[in-house]
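Could you help me review a protein record that somebody else here produced? Here is the record exactly as it was handed to me:
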Amino acid sequence: MKTNRRKQSAIAMIFTGLAAVFLAGCEPVVLPPTQHAPTSPEQVKLYQKQPAKYENLATIMMPITPEMKWNDRMESVAGIDALKVRAAAMGANGVLLTAQPGMFDVMATTGYHGMWYQVPVKDNPKRAVVQAIFVVSE
């Protein structure tokens, strides 16, 4: 009986160790920012969660203007396009739609070309708070 329990305990420890290694390997790697040539807004992808390996170039705090209002499909194409233009000017190839706690008040759901995203928004004055990133690998 003791031998079976020891085997079961050893197997459980091995699986626990493998799970820990696997989960640790899934953590995103945030590299120090470096200079990048400006990109085009068409090259900038939207990320709802952190990619595997990226540089956090800058926080974008963009005022939400009346031109960025939702259309009849609840999309804010003009708003997302404006974020992509700002990110591209910094050399980013991605916009990470997250912000640190305390930097935003609500998460606004908006559409963009048929896809739905949660965008951090700060009130008073109303502005989107996102990250311009350079993705090394996904």
Observations:
- The domain at 29-137 is CATH 3.30.110 (Translation Initiation Factor IF3).
- Confidence is low (pLDDT under 50) at residues 10-24.
